[in-house]
Amino acid sequence: MTRPYRIGQIVPSSNITMETEIPAMLNARQLIRPERFTFHSSRMRMKTVSKEELAAMDGESDRCALELSDAAVDVMGYACLVAIMSMGPGYHRESQKRLRERTKENGQETEVVTSAGALVDALKVLNAKKVVVVAPYMKPLTEMVVDYIQREGTEVLEYRALEIPNNLDVARHDTAKLPDIVASMDFSDADAIVLSACVQMPSLAAVPKVEALTGKPVVTAAIATTYQMLKALDLEPVVPGAGALLSGAY
């Protein structure tokens, strides 16, 4: 392809991190690979991370997919892990299929990735049978996320729910605190660390430090989404400084 690849994102209205971390990773990739990217978003209304607001927000995802297909994006990512996981086991498959159908109806059939599906698939790619998880959500929502991951075949040995209800406050969480949070957990039997089970909680800058601290692969929802987007575009899933999954080994 001679033109840049168009990356579409379906994001909560209050999400500011996914439009930072995914461009950061793909721009870093441009330093070592020839492909170029542009970034395009459509928003679903959500301010408070509650099951009720998440369900209402998910109802707007079809409109967003339609809008992004108007721009003929090459891949689109549904950038809210907990919205998908709170809708019940396996919902990422239903969502991806339905949203792709919306783009097909608009004459622009487009591969759809969800951050929820990307994370559970990434754990399979890493052959991670056991993990520890850090999430910013209130405990009931975090437990839904843990249950979703476990139903997909990965055991969650321990989790931390940071219990931040306001989505903008999630984006303000200090990334530098994440290594100490992980250090306080028993990760000895874990195969991998899920450093952020949320695309709104910034984590990218802490990934190398936590990999050095634990000696284990570290993945985040944003890293997993980037990996799946690159695979969907049939591009090599490699990004410098973005952890084991994007190291080129997978």
From TrEMBL:
Top-level class of the enzyme under EC nomenclature: isomerase
Residue intervals passing through the bilayer: none
Residue ranges the record marks as coiled coil: none
Pfam families membership: Amdase
Catalytic reactions of this protein: maleate = fumarate
InterPro entries: Iso_Racemase_Enz_sf (IPR053714), MaiA/AMDase (IPR026286), Maleate_isomerase (IPR028615)
EC number: 5.2.1.1
S-(2-succinyl)cysteine: modified positions: C80
Keywords (A to Z) from UniProt: Isomerase
Family classification: Belongs to the maleate isomerase family.
Name by which UniProt lists this protein: Maleate isomerase
Species name: Alloalcanivorax gelatiniphagus
